[in-house]
Amino acid sequence: MSVKEKQAHAKARCGCDSFLCAGVRLSCSHRTILPPQPLFPADELDNLLAPVALYPDPLLAQILIAATFPDQIDEAAQFCRNDPDPGDIDVQVWDVSVKALAHYPTVLNKLTSHLDWAAALGEAYVTQPDDVMDSIQRLRQEAMDAGNLVDTPEQEVIVDGDDIEIWPAQDEYIYVPMYDPSLAYFGSGGRFDGPVVSFGPPQVIGAWLNHDCGWRDRRIHYHGWSTGNGWVGRSRPYVYISDVYVNDSYRSVPVNGSVVSRTLNSANLTRYHSVHRELPRSGSIEPQSPDPVEPRNITGASRATEPLSALRSGLMNSFTAPPAPHGVPHESTPHAQPVQPSVPHEVHSAPPPVQHEFRPAPPARY
């Protein structure tokens, strides 16, 4: 779909040029007008989303929103390393999605350890929400076809028409999956006797999991713990409701539109080629030297000409077991270790977030 077609489609859907719809910034009298950004092709979206597409819907929803606030993610990770008290998270000024992820340090660490990737996720969701959600469904179908997305004691896989949903299988706890995307979507080829996808320790489902994936309209919705169906209804009796996370002001789900103007290091993004091998993007991504951590040599060969075994040779090792910063536990480590004081982190003020228009969530399909 061309940019003009997306503009016409967006206006037809919401009837107002003041909102960000279908991946295009539309002009209006009371919002900042930003130029259209280069769109991510489908293959590149698959690469960006592969490390999180198999996460349960409640966590995935928070990740997609929080990724539009990369600076806040970085600040939250610094804060959590120095202050292990979860009660102190609620009084911070971060977006509610970032606060939610701060209750799951391993997820927060995954994003902040690959901040350019996280920012690219955020840019993709701001500009192409439909395409992002389609990519997640595409990847989940591949994982299911490979036998790597199934019901377990940790997760419940729901197939509803063409959509695949992933719910927490337990009422009180949610589990963070651990997997190598270069295997999860293709199968292990008999290299492993055990499952390709494993899980970390149980983590509490709290009021902070206040968003869910709306697969019918391809958006993230605020549920406010008001529905009595599905995983929300099952977990509601165990959740203490706090107005920090349950508030009518969250009905319009905000995203930080300024993430699209963030300069990204393309050398870092080329690490995520486990599903497709693509050329570096243009636009806001500048070619730079890669970070000194985990240097990789990417040849640029196409997937069609490179054996699948080469794709499985560790291109996504950083996502199977990322080294945790001091004080942040790994998925398989339930307790953090003592840390040394770190240098105070400089806090940057962010521009006001852009908001998607509020559309009531469709009827539950449970």
Q: Could you describe the 3D structure shown?
A:
The chain is of the alpha+beta class and 366 residues long. The protein folds into 2 domains: 1-36, no CATH class; 37-337, no CATH class. The chain contains 13 helices and 12 strands. The chain has helices at 3-14, 42-49, 57-66, 70-82, 96-102, 105-113, 115-127, 129-145, 181-184, 230-235, 266-269, 308-311, 317-320; strands spanning 155-160, 163-168, 173-174, 177-178, 198-199, 203-204, 211-214, 219-222, 254-255, 264-265, 285-286, 354-355. The strands form 6 sheets. Strands 1-2 form a two-stranded antiparallel ribbon. Strands 3-6 form a two-stranded antiparallel ribbon. Strands 4-5 form a two-stranded antiparallel sheet. A hairpin with a 2-residue loop joins β1 and β2 (163-168). α3 packs across α5 (96-102). The longest helix has 17 residues, at 129-145. It is globular. The protein starts with a helix and ends in an 11-residue tail after the last strand. Mean pLDDT is 73; it is low at 6-33 and 277-366.
The coarse overall form would be: globular
Q: Count the E strands.
A: 12
Unreliable spans? 6-33, 277-366
Fraction of residues in helices? 25-40%
Give me the secondary-structure topology:
Elements: H1 3-14, H2 42-49, H3 57-66, H4 70-82, H5 96-102, H6 105-113, H7 115-127, H8 129-145, E1 155-160, E2 163-168, E3 173-174, E4 177-178, H9 181-184, E5 198-199, E6 203-204, E7 211-214, E8 219-222, H10 230-235, E9 254-255, E10 264-265, H11 266-269, E11 285-286, H12 308-311, H13 317-320, E12 354-355
Parallel strand pairs: 10-11
Antiparallel strand pairs: 1-2, 3-6, 4-5, 7-8, 9-12
